[in-house]
Amino acid sequence: MKTLVYVDHDNANLGDATLATVTAASKLGEVHLLVAGAGCAAVGEAAAKIAGVGKVHVADDAAYEHQLAENVAPLIAGLMDAHDAVLFPATTTGKNIAPRVAALLDVMQISDILSVEGEKTFTRPIYAGNAIATVESTDAKLVITVRGTAFDKAEASGGSAEIEAVASTGDAGKSSFVGAEIAKSERPELTSAKIIVSGGRALKDAETFEATIMPLADKFGAGVGASRAAVDAGYVPNDYQVGQTGKIVAPEVYIAIGISGAIQHLAGMKDSKTIIAINKDEDAPIFQVADIGLVADLYQAVPELMEKL
Amino acid sequence: MKALVPVKRVIDYNVKPRVKADGSGVDLSNVKMSMNPFDEIAVEQAIRLKEAGKIDEIVAVSIGPAKAQETLRTALAMGADSAVLVETDETVEPLAVAKILKAVAAEVEPGLIILGKQAIDDDSNQTGQMLAALMDLPQGTFASKVEVEGDHVSVTREVDGGLETVKLSVPAIITTDLRLNEPRYASLPNIMKAKKKPLGTKTPADYGVDIAPRLKTLTVAEPPVRQAGVKVADVDELVAKLKAMGVA
Ligand SMILES: Cc1cc2nc3c(=O)[nH]c(=O)nc-3n(C[C@H](O)[C@H](O)[C@H](O)COP(=O)(O)OP(=O)(O)OC[C@H]3O[C@@H](n4cnc5c(N)ncnc54)[C@H](O)[C@@H]3O)c2cc1C
Ligand SMILES: Nc1ncnc2c1ncn2[C@@H]1O[C@H](COP(=O)(O)O)[C@@H](O)[C@H]1O
């Protein structure tokens, strides 16, 4: 089988989610990559070094600068005569583009796969991960999004794939990019952090969240996450949300502070290796998944922890 | 201009789903069902645009069993003007839902189609994007802000790194994220009024759409359960554990 992996990037670097997607694709067959962007030659070169990649298609055009789905989807659909499957990382970029490609190909997409069970058979979470479905596609082509935490990352070096330029399909003329507010943080990214400290509604407000959670995260060199309640209340920006409809994380250690453990939150973090919870309610559902639980008022426990670490 | 709002009847988000013992699916008998939360946000957004004078009519549509009428009545009670049920007892996959919605849209001729970003049962996150492809329209997915300006709509999107704003020509497809708005509750008088609002019924065959599934579900299983952990008595014990793990 010939597979095409969509590379998620910012025209300069490619992310870890793509490396996991390459691993998933390699279980199906030969792996080709597609880099669609503007001034993205460096990404193409980095992509060519990924171990196990056969070829890198680079579509470098102003129309692809912000990876607008309206412009990128026809490009990918055009490459699908020569490929049997296309896989996207389940990032917001992948989730935005993949279904548009699937519909152009008249194919039912398989979202957020956890494993490859056969040529056309995959597992995927449904109902916020409370059930795992094994599904088999009957379509001629496969369109898949891949959960990054479910696959090991392919080696970013060691490969020497051929780079081939692809002609642009141009600007569809339906949408344009206006601007972005992308937070710059010194802390590790959530989806690749080894340790994550997360705060919930109990953190009261943005100042308290900052003063309580951030120093602890810095002590561990950890990424910072949050529950939906904390994001909705404006303690932290949207990209901190962990859960069914936020980011899916699986760090070595996940420390949940003042988070009750609603199923939607658990869906995003219960594959973490070790879960630690601090909550003053001993019946909070978070304790059902926590490896180590501390029933305590976080405003006493966290400062004490800071002092004793 | 009109807004078309697809709403799905799903398991209530407060219910913990149970996998059937025979592995054929999730047990939905005697389970509380509600409107998909993202679709409530979509209905609310359409109503707000109507209140702001940007939309003059809201049509809600659901594809599902006869009981999905309840979901449509909820949309009508919130403020939608009319509703269409495309009735079927079969499971309809996002691709087929998108094809049916395309056919409904051909009749309604909406300027905006506002969907949820994701149905909380299948967690597909596909239908809006597929509909946009089938109708060859622009898409503003995972919206946290929507502003209609003349023949354009500006959509702020929740993306992995933060926020991104795109400008789309109308007609356009929008899918909602959690922070777009807080949906209203229907008042009792509005629930009564909703009973008199028009609710038409169709079938997928009326639109000539083949809903045969493309994905075969082989099994549905419980996820691996985590081993019960321990509770520590105090911070000292927690610190000791962290040290033993090598993280402190
Ligand atoms: C469609 C939909 C999608 C959703 N998606 C997500 C998602 O992706 N991610 C997500 O997180 N949620 C999501 N939710 C929301 C979810 O259902 C919960 O509402 C949310 O996770 C609750 O956040 P919380 O635990 O911070 O708040 P709460 O449930 O209010 O819990 C606060 C906790 O803090 C504890 N506490 C209070 N004070 C202290 C103190 N001083 N010391 C110690 N503990 C204290 C309390 O005992 C309580 O357990 C979604 C909901 C819906 C409907
Ligand atoms: N059966 C359905 N009836 C009406 N709308 C639907 C249906 N299925 C999906 N949708 C819409 O598509 C969105 C995304 O669903 P999904 O792609 O299944 O995650 C939902 O939030 C609804 O707005």
Task: Describe it.
The complex is a heterodimer of chains A (309) and B (248). With 309 residues, chain A is an alpha/beta fold. Helices cover 28% and strands 28% of the residues of chain A. Chain A has helices at 16-26, 41-48, 69-79, 92-104, 206-220, 228-232, 263-269, 286-289, 298-308; strands at residues 2-6, 30-37, 53-60, 85-89, 110-113, 115-118, 121-126, 131-137, 142-146, 162-165, 175-182, 195-199, 223-226, 253-257, 274-279, 292-295. In chain A, the strands form three sheets. In chain A, strands 5-9-4-1-2-3-10 form a seven-stranded parallel sheet, with helices on both faces. Chain A has a five-stranded parallel sheet with strand order 13-12-14-15-16. A three-stranded antiparallel sheet of chain A has the order 6-7-8, with no helix packed on it. In chain A, α7 (263-269) links the parallel β14 and β15 (274-279). With 248 residues, chain B is an alpha/beta fold. Chain B has six helices and 13 strands. Chain B has a nine-stranded mixed sheet, with helices on both faces. In chain B, α2 crosses α5 and α3 crosses α4. The N and C termini of chain B lie far apart (60 Å). The mean pLDDT of chain B is 97. At the A-B interface, α3, α4, β5, β7 and β8 of A face α3, α4, β7, β8 and β9 of B. The complex binds flavin-adenine dinucleotide (FAD) and adenosine monophosphate. Adenosine monophosphate binds at residues 6-8, 36, 38-39, 42, 62-64, 92, 94, 97, 115-116, 118-119, 122, 124-128 of chain B. Chain B: GO terms for molecular function: electron transfer activity. Chain B: Belongs to the ETF beta-subunit/FixA family.
Helices of chain B, by number, come to 6
Radius of gyration computed on alpha carbons of chain B:
21 Å
Main sheet properties of chain A: 7 strands, parallel
**Form type of chain B:** globular
Helix content of chain B: 25-40%
Tell me the total number of β-strands of chain B. 13
Ligand types: flavin-adenine dinucleotide, adenosine monophosphate
Protein name (chain B): Electron transfer flavoprotein subunit beta
Subunit structure (chain B): Heterodimer of an alpha and a beta subunit.
Cofactor (chain B): AMP
Function (chain B): The electron transfer flavoprotein serves as a specific electron acceptor for other dehydrogenases. It transfers the electrons to the main respiratory chain via ETF-ubiquinone oxidoreductase (ETF dehydrogenase).
